[in-house]
Amino acid sequence: MRVLFVTLAAATHLHAQVPVAWALRAAGHDVCVASHPDVVDDIVRSGLTPVPVGEPMDIGRWADVPPLTEEEFQDETNIWDARGGVDWGLFDLCELRPEKLGYASMQAVFSAWVGASFQQISSPRVMDDLVGFARQWRPDLIIWDPLTFAAPVAAVAVGAAHARMMFGFDVIGRMRQTYRAALADRPAVLREDPFEEWLGTALARYGGGFDEQAVLGQWTIDTVPSSMRLEVDQLYVPMRYTPYNGRSTVEPWLWHPPERRRVCLTLGSSFRELMGGDRADVGELLRAVADLDVEVIATLNTDQLDSLPPLPDNVRAVDFVPLDALLPSCSAIIHHSGSGTTQTALAHGVPQVIVPTNMMDNVLKAQRVEAAGAGLHVRDTAALTADSLRALLLRVLDEPSFAAKAAAVRREMLAAPAPRDIVPVLERLTALGRSRAVPELPDTSGAVL
Predict the structure, then answer these.
(1) Overall pTM surpassing 0.70 (yes/no)
(2) Residue 201, Cβ neighbours under 10 Å: how many?
């Protein structure tokens, strides 16, 4: 069959799709990857065939917002009332407290995301280009990043099956489920659905009509461990997380085991590339580890190093190192809660100290890692100090429970089907999806025959 992947214009989002794309390719299926021109070179470097759609997209131009403090997170008032404004709350897809999920608040969140983000990612030009390619290439299956809603539009236009491929927690699916229940409780004349208004109009342009699959896909491929997954009434195909770091080289110093406990310190490449800087104070992070009897591998580029004093003697700075090669030798990792970093650390059973940015579900991921006992997170990044971070790191290094719980999550992940193992499942679901036989909202069991 022909399989078209659609990804956000960010290398880290592409990397989440590459293992299953190559599993399908190795099984004999034809595979292409569509995205904005920004990531065409990354697609080529992955060995896959790119399909550029739309204009180049500078995601970093979108406004950043301050991180949520612990006081605000615990506050029993409405979160954006606590802010004294609406900016942060309007984009908070991670709210899970039922008493905070009223119709008006969820409607505001979805309106903000659709208007300020999703319509930019899936602009009319992107939709026209993607539908045009799909009509020419005729894919049987479209697998899409959950932020790229041009993909289900193209799937409906050509009668293809389509599925989301998660890169983190299904926060859209979780809030959408609650929102649909709230909609059902309102009179029809008072129902406003930003997704239906936008996607319904888009689908009509290509001869289709709106249903919930345009938002959540016919099914969802998910690499989040089942014990950490959000509860959503959606058909999930569980898949083992398989780290892919892009084209990279393993340096000779990584061939040998460390002489003392090794700690990885990384703020990831995605936040730097997309937002043009780091949320956390890099100098404060380095001061936290300066006097410890550990070897620190810090991923710092030239711009970051130029703004810092001389590095502590126990810190080795590298511009980039593949985490999949580095983490097996590490006793802990300090990071920003990016999806690739978090899941790679879980896959290798490495205890984590997380200084989360407020991008998408990063705070939620940090909370879930801590709840699983596999690490600790900084609750108020604005108040971060070297002493407070050092205390968290020492706990993770010295208390055996963190390594034990991280190892348990690793075993759970290894028990999930590998990318090649889900190919027959995708083949069967594609046949059902093309005939529209996949149920719209089946019982969620976390397993597919």
Answers:
(1) yes
(2) 10
